[in-house]
Amino acid sequence: MSPKPRANDVKERLVEAAIRLLDVGGPEALQARKLAAEIGVSTMAVYTHFGGMAALVDEVARTGFGKLSAWLAEVGETDDPVADIFSLARTYRQAVAEQPQLFAVTFGQSAPGGKRATLSDLTTEEGREAAPEGLEAFDHIVRATERAIEAGRFRPADKYQAAAQLWSALHGFVTLEASGHFGAGEQGIDHILIPLGITLAVGLGDTVERAEHSTEAAKAAWRAKTRNAGQGGND
Amino acid sequence: MSPKPRANDVKERLVEAAIRLLDVGGPEALQARKLAAEIGVSTMAVYTHFGGMAALVDEVARTGFGKLSAWLAEVGETDDPVADIFSLARTYRQAVAEQPQLFAVTFGQSAPGGKRATLSDLTTEEGREAAPEGLEAFDHIVRATERAIEAGRFRPADKYQAAAQLWSALHGFVTLEASGHFGAGEQGIDHILIPLGITLAVGLGDTVERAEHSTEAAKAAWRAKTRNAGQGGND
DNA sequence: GCCCATTTATAACAGGGTTATGAGATACTG
DNA sequence: CAGTATCTCATAACCCTGTTATAAATGGGC
Description:
The structure is a homodimer. Chain A is an all-alpha fold. Chain A has ten helices and no strands. Chain A has helices at 7-25, 32-39, 44-49, 53-73, 81-98, 100-106, 136-150, 159-178, 187-203, 208-228. Chains A and B meet through α8 and α9 of A and α8 and α9 of B. Chain B binds a DNA duplex through α3.
């Protein structure tokens, strides 16, 4: 997997440096000269390895999707699929909250060079899982939704369609929160995200009581997780 | 209101040209030299009137919010507040679908110069309506939500909190759809947005039957609207 | 050990935002 | 009405950033 000890090293280090500079300096820090200086090479490295800044930014976006998927994969499955959905949401939100600049690029927002990293069609017809790259994140939501339907918590429905509803709501909340609405800190979670999750669960067929119970289960799981792993996540 | 017959004219024409070029050429068309050439002035106009490209882009973003609010304001009030919410959602989505580049800037996405047009806190504590600028769009959702609560369609709840849930879901759907997910054309509306609306309405206290009925009412209103006014909207 | 391909540094080019400067127009003032 | 101050705008340059041409250097394959 690593036949070139130094060449790919530069490529990887460029992406790492890009994410690092992005986090601390925002989109305007994503410059060929800054990146090159950061790892001690010339700007040519950007062109031999990526062909240009646009492709490098694409790679950064892909890396963001990969990180998001990796985080969501850590959420695991319990016997309460609705609680798992809440945990996925909490994790999704946490990832964006910790690295807003990275995920702004990942989601195609504020692309530095006027370049977008849009994906492509996802649920093209009705339920195609033609996830082009990084849409494994969506798959996690789909699987949890599927289990919620099978467990009788959600009404029988197209799992992709139901998952897309959840994803829309979650993504919208995260996006608006990252834009500064919904206040700072955790208040958006308590005041909006959790009520939103209960609203969706109930609307999809769950009872208020069970949805609220799943909320508490997810909260407990989250506290246990942050207690064990500190709060740095991976990376 | 217009003591300077020509001076403010240049300012307005710059913003108009910016939106025009943005629509056809994307974010990379938002350049001082292109804007100046478009209206037949020099790039200095950008600096005498705005101080720089960043402020001009901010003004474009503000204009986008204004247009969105104006569109939503056209969605009057009927005796079915839930149908009104669906109509607001349809309008919100339509605005973004017609001018995706403009609203990408408006929502702080893909800001051309690495600049963001973020607003600030909105529901700071629990229900402050300290909308800084252009958050009148959110107010339309709040008012319709309030009427839905008063009409007994939604359970008693904090109107800002409930409206924020609706806004999150709507904004997430629109954002993801604009990024190319959910397919092209109207299929995202039928397959995801409308089911999402029903899910939310039911989750907030409405019955499935009444929510579906409101969906049909909103559809009919939309058809009537597009039949009367063509499909160009304002602008 | 030699040759080819890849990688890299240097230096220049091109296209952006921005600024210095002065001319022109406009509005106030006596 | 003349003069002056202010605002607006065009020209031209400056700086920064992405990109490319070129050649040196490094490393793998025979």
